[in-house]
Amino acid sequence: MYLLKLGGSVITQKDKMCTLRKDVLSRLVREIAEVMRKDRELIIVHGAGSFGHLRAKKAGVHLGLRDLDGEEKRIHERILAMAHVQADVRRLNLSVCEQLENVGVPCFSIAPASVGLMRGGRLVHFDMEAFRHSLGLGMVPVSFGDVLLDESMGFSICSGDQILLELAREFHPEKVIFLSDVDGIYDRDPKTHGDARLLPHLTPSDIEELSLSGKEGDVTGAMYGKMGEAVEMAKTGARVIFLNGLVEGRLPRFFEDEDSVPHTTLEEAR
Ligand code: ADP
Ligand code: IPE
Is 88 in the pocket of ligand 2 (CB under 6 A)? Predict the structure, then answer.
């Protein structure tokens, strides 16, 4: 079993409101179909990219009902923005599923808001039945970063990465593969440091040494948030792989010969 994250940085243009990278997505679904031909069991989770982060950050959706001083108008606006983000990420999910179906991958869409519940921004309940049953039919469950009801904040944002962690704990995949817009994990952000070094192999204890920007960046903590979840995935025994999804062929080539493509592996022990 494999878990695959299609990062928002890959399938959308992250700085342009609700903008799908159609060409990248249609290539990636073909590559996924190719990888699937070997009868591999797969769950896909995608990020929200510009279908989630931009509006969520602007309207404070990640704060739930916090910081509104009980003002009715502001409460109403925040709830409306939450509903809007929810609709936008569903539209993105529909595009991903349509593209997968176009290449013959039978996907089963699972909206986290319908099967999960949070408290203080962390999942406290996530029903796995739909994942289990759709896998049983030979389908590929497709879930995504979403806005969920939250017992203490009203609602909050759940990253695709947090969902992957729950799935890793439940299904004990051999590998969890993250596709993002860089070749893997570097000692510092490669977008802002030309001399950043790609780190081929990491263990959870290496992570504290890294410079991971983004903690205050997007509403789910960007690379900083992602690595927090990834370390916990590695602790379940999964090998966590970081690959560049913007480069054609990286995913299928990784499955053929891991050493032939640049990537980072994070695992509990070398
Ligand atoms: P995604 O949308 O694919 O889930 P994010 O945008 O949240 O991914 O995170 C990917 C980004 O993290 C990269 O574009 C990169 O600029 C940034 N980043 C920050 N620090 C690092 C690092 N140490 N190594 C790799 N990428 C990093
Ligand atoms: C974000 O999910 C969900 C919302 C903003 C609603 P992710 O954190 O997994 O999305 P990406 O991959 O960073 O875009």
Answer: no
Q: Which of 4, 28, 44, 189 to mutate to test the pocket of ligand 1 (most atoms within 8 A of CB)?
A: 189
pLDDT digit of tens for each residue in the chain (270 aa)?
A: 999 999 999 999 999 999 999 999 999 999 999 998 887 899 999 999 999 999 999 999 999 999 998 899 999 999 999 999 999 999 999 999 999 999 999 999 999 999 999 999 999 999 999 999 999 999 999 999 999 999 999 999 999 999 999 999 999 999 999 999 999 999 889 999 999 999 999 999 888 777 676 556 677 777 888 899 999 999 999 999 999 999 999 999 999 999 999 999 999 986
Q: Which amino acid is at 161?
A: D
Residues 250, 28 contacting (CB under 8 angstroms): no
45 pocket-lining for ligand 2 (C-beta < 6 Å)? no
C-alpha angle 16-81-213 in degrees, rounded to nearest 5? 50
